[in-house]
Design goal:
Length: 304
Amino acid sequence: MCVKSDRATFCGIRPGVTRLEVVVVVVLVILALGILLPFLGRGRGLAKQVECANHLRRIGQGIEFYHDGTKSRPGSGFLPPARIDEGYATWPIVLGPYLATDNLFAEWDLQKPYAEQSAAAREAVMPVFFCPARNRTETLSQAGELDRHGARIVGGVGDYAGASGDGDPAHLWTGPKANGAIILGEVLEREDDLVLRWKSRTSFASLVRGKSYTILIGEKHVPFGHFGEVWAGDGSFYNGGNAANFSRIGGPGYGLAASMEAPFNNNFGSAHAGLCQFLHADGRVEAYANSLDEQVLGQLIRRE
């Protein structure tokens, strides 16, 4: 409706909107969301990948500090062991003091086995050991770990694993002849259940292929729906009684997991779409496609 005056004609805005106009607006909003949401999802995924890479770099810095701290003469020094001995502390525990000023593992007694540590020590959780892309609801192991009396014990879990070997049966990845960089330690003196003296078996100097071409740590594959389960390689990160909790294999027959639904194979894998991230001995973090050739992966993990 229009109202005339001496100077102009004013037309009012009609009340109400037609159904067709509402439908058009809704369709446009849906189309806009369809375009934007994938970009937002990719942005969040990339942010989590970057944060995960930063965690691996911090672990790499901790390894450098540990290596420097174990030097007895110029040019010497050791990499952390995968575990001191079967059933004893693992590399995350050994690196704890080098990763944070507030050492959450201060109560841990390296001479004693995992099952004899205090609950506070076993259940300590360090954020640097978790990939933000892996949506865990629990930070403690859930099933499969028992003490010497058969009672269930729990401990903190983690998303990373040491590169212990390429799967060659002549170099068993859980033993002293493993051909990776992060392998079983050597006990020098023992008294009953106490490990009085021990040392690592590997160093930066033992990486014959060079630091740039040798993997130290990578994201470990845990099938979706089996978080915290020891038989899926996700028991306590600190329990040296099960090597798959903290170590992995990479090489022929042990390729990167194609997805989080892939079966467990003592292998590496991640929650990132299409890739898995690794820490090299030179401190560099590299994201490799899940389709990476198994032979190439094995070459990157073998230290000799």
